[in-house]
Amino acid sequence: MKLGRQQREWGHKGLIYAGAALAGLICVFPFYYAVLTSLRTGQELFLANYLPSGFHWDNYIGALVDNGIARSLLNSVLVATVTVGLCLLVSITAAFALARISFRGRKYLLFTILCVSMFPQVAVLSGMFELVRFMGLYDSLGALVLSYTTFSLPFTVWVLTTFMKSMPVELEEAAIVDGASTWVIITRIFAPIMGPSLVTTGLLAFIGAWNEFMFALTFVISSGKRTVPVAIGMFQGASQYELPWGSIMAASVVVTLPIIVLVLIFQKRIVSGLTSGAVKG
């Protein structure tokens, strides 16, 4: 009887491990094949070979130097970093107001914020273009920061408000008794406790700004101010009938690496942020 139970447990664990291995393979294989393609040249690009036959770094040199991906990487890092900073600064203060201060119409305001986050980019493209042109930000990185912050704020405000509501009111009351101001309560008490949720929302906002294409293509026309997605989309071959797949894959690998590094560095905080507030004791 005991042996049969152990066999069933081993069978269940085997299924779990097999499913995890299959899911990992499905997730990793596209990136693995992109790396293989980036290291090939000539006719090797069109051969269905899943093992490396050589290591040719010319595609990386061509992508970073000849096609200006290095400059576009700096632009993307600057835009995404500023966007995340503005989103977190505004979101944590807005979340404090929405979660801690009772005022008329608060529920309707939260519902409006949630509805705004559902609008597709193409629906507000013309309006954002007029706003960017009115503010004199056309063909500048500021236009991207403005548009990305506008689209990321509803999501970050909604998520941080949910986390703020799950925090005990006694922390705030004790700080008020000690004479702490609202800004001190937000930055010294709530911000450290909400570290995992801030990291999670910040990373999602960073990925959204890093991968965005439509606004970057519309609001920026100078080649030196392009972000990475647009720069990769503008790759050209030796003729109009040729696409430099090797350089495109090399640029894609270079662009994906920072996101992978960030996720690996903050993976514990990301898991804590996603599960925070799921169980109330």
From TrEMBL:
<dbReference type="GO" id="GO:0005886">
    <property type="term" value="C:plasma membrane"/>
</dbReference>
<feature type="transmembrane region" description="Helical">
    <location>
        <begin position="243"/>
        <end position="266"/>
    </location>
</feature>
<dbReference type="InterPro" id="IPR000515">
    <property type="entry name" value="MetI-like"/>
</dbReference>
<dbReference type="Pfam" id="PF00528">
    <property type="entry name" value="BPD_transp_1"/>
</dbReference>
<protein>
    <submittedName>
        <fullName>Sugar ABC transporter permease</fullName>
    </submittedName>
</protein>
<feature type="transmembrane region" description="Helical">
    <location>
        <begin position="15"/>
        <end position="35"/>
    </location>
</feature>
<dbReference type="InterPro" id="IPR035906">
    <property type="entry name" value="MetI-like_sf"/>
</dbReference>
<feature type="transmembrane region" description="Helical">
    <location>
        <begin position="77"/>
        <end position="99"/>
    </location>
</feature>
<keyword id="KW-1133">Transmembrane helix</keyword>
<feature type="transmembrane region" description="Helical">
    <location>
        <begin position="108"/>
        <end position="129"/>
    </location>
</feature>
<keyword id="KW-0813">Transport</keyword>
<comment type="similarity">
    <text>Belongs to the binding-protein-dependent transport system permease family. MalFG subfamily.</text>
</comment>
<dbReference type="GO" id="GO:0055085">
    <property type="term" value="P:transmembrane transport"/>
</dbReference>
<feature type="transmembrane region" description="Helical">
    <location>
        <begin position="141"/>
        <end position="160"/>
    </location>
</feature>
<feature type="domain" description="ABC transmembrane type-1">
    <location>
        <begin position="73"/>
        <end position="266"/>
    </location>
</feature>
<keyword id="KW-0472">Membrane</keyword>
<keyword id="KW-1003">Cell membrane</keyword>
<keyword id="KW-0812">Transmembrane</keyword>
<dbReference type="InterPro" id="IPR050901">
    <property type="entry name" value="BP-dep_ABC_trans_perm"/>
</dbReference>
